[in-house]
Design a protein that fits this description.
Layout lengths: L7 H14 L10 E4 L8 E6 L6 E5 L13 H24 L3 E12 L1 H4 L10 E12 L6 H13 L1 H8 L13
Antiparallel strand pairs: 1-2, 2-3, 4-5
Helix pairs in contact: 2-4
Length: about 180
């Protein structure tokens, strides 16, 4: 793979200058919404993302809880979000550091005990109990591997999804039910 064709420092310089001058402009939101789908099918749904108008993601229940296994489940999408963030962050950090990537392979695997979500055992946690990420990079050799080590440290440091999962975040839910 050739060196990055994007000058990341040049691309981000005006953004960083603007955020220094106006920190409030660095505050963003990422929004997903329910998309119209067949409400008679309890095993599938569609999600729309504000960042990609016109694009919907079809998801469904995991086969282990009765789903058909024909589309990604929400756990798959969570791992896809983690992997996408990690790979993009690695690529961006490598570009900023002037490191040529020869290959990037990442695998994100989440473990869960489905007895919890199936309400079979109150002692079993509901949710992912572990996430393992395997990152394999090939970079142009710098002799000692020091730059590659710094690349991985910085990529972990700056990956938003990874840090959200590691550190947790408050999730607030506002339920409204209308009877018609």
């Amino acid at each position: 793979m050739p060196a990055s064709t994007v000058n990341l420092r040049e691309l981000q310089a005006p953004l960083k200058a603007r955020y220094l001058e106006h920190p409030e402009q660095a505050q963003i939101t990422c929004t997903a919404r329910s998309a119209r789908s067949d409400l008679t099918d309890p095993l599938h749904c569609e999600v729309a993302l504000d960042a990609a108008p016109g694009v919907t993601i079809r998801s469904g229940a995991h086969a282990g809880v009765g789903g058909a296994g024909d589309v990604p489940c929400s756990g798959d999408l969570l791992m896809a979000a983690l992997l996408a963030c990690q790979e993009t962050t690695i690529r961006m950090v490598a570009a900023a550091m002037g490191i040529e990537l020869e290959s990037v392979e990442i695998e994100a695997v989440a473990a869960a005990d489905l007895r919890g979500t199936l309400a079979m055992d109150r002692e079993v946690a509901i949710g992912m109990t572990a996430v393992d990420c395997r990152v394999r990079l090939q970079v142009k050799d710098d002799g000692r591997g020091e730059r590659a080590r710094r690349l991985l440290e910085n990529a972990e440091k700056y990956c938003i999804v990874l840090n959200t999962l590691r550190n947790g975040v408050e999730v607030r839910t506002d339920f409204k039910v209308e009877s018609i």
